[in-house]
Amino acid sequence: VKTLPIGIDGKLRGYHLFEAVKFMGWEDVQAKQGKVILEALCKAFVATDASLLEINPLVETDRGDLIALD
Which of 3, 10, 50, 54 is the most buried (most CB within 10 A)? Predict the structure, then answer.
């Protein structure tokens, strides 16, 4: 489990995104896709005033793409 602070504007700082990508082991295209997913997740968390928000499952396709299925 990795915990990162989210700003009140729903944004993660660049170094937090880098930290999350490294933690997940994503590289190249997956790293870019992962950053987009994480940024959208954080914005949705703040916009909905959520106490919990999750993607389950987040999958890697045979081509190596990341997709949030739920």
Answer: 10
In whole angstroms, give the CA distance from residue 57 to residue 48.
Answer: 20
Q: Is the pLDDT of residue 1 over 90?
A: no
Question: CA separation (Å) from 7 to 16, 33, 47?
Answer: 11, 21, 12
Cα separation of 69 and 16, whole Å?
24
Cβ within 8 Å of residue 12, ≥6 positions away: 4, 5, 6, 20, 38, 39, 42
Q: pTM score, two decimals?
A: 0.87
Give CA–CA dist 70/26, Å, rounded.
20
